[in-house]
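chain below, 166 aa
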Amino acid sequence: MRVRRLHKRPAALEVTAFINLIVVLVPFLLSTAVFSRLAVLDLTLPAQSSGVEKLKGDLQLEVVIRPEGLNVGDRIGGQILWIPNKESGYDYPALADLMLELKARFPDKTEASILAEPGTPYDVLVGVMDAVRETHVAQGANAVRADLFPDISIGDAPIRAPEGKS
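prediction:
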């Protein structure tokens, strides 16, 4: 008896639909990749003090964020200025003006510490960091960016004594 064998042809691979998907997907992914950028600020943690500061004439700038305002001070010399909140929120322009004055008095100083109380909103912390880090100075008809105190350290604000207790 004769055996009949069927000759099977190999199946053709249909990739047209996949190529169409890739043609649409690649430009879409390339166009959306431009909008996802990551901004990074270099921060350092405050160094632990040894108890005795080396240079008493040097500025050690601290900005303490409180719910009712900003306390700008020198770690050694004490409070420089209290900036109360406006009705609209924290007074970032007044902080930037004070930082500009301090930079004029201490041009070589680049470090500043920002101390925030627990529960401080992130946008407030970023606003204070921006005001301390840089400002825009009018130079002729143009506004030029000027670095103030770019080396920022972030920490916890000192705990205040409860009202009525000493």
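Confidence is low (pLDDT under 50) at residues 49-56. The radius of gyration is 30 Å.
thats it, cya
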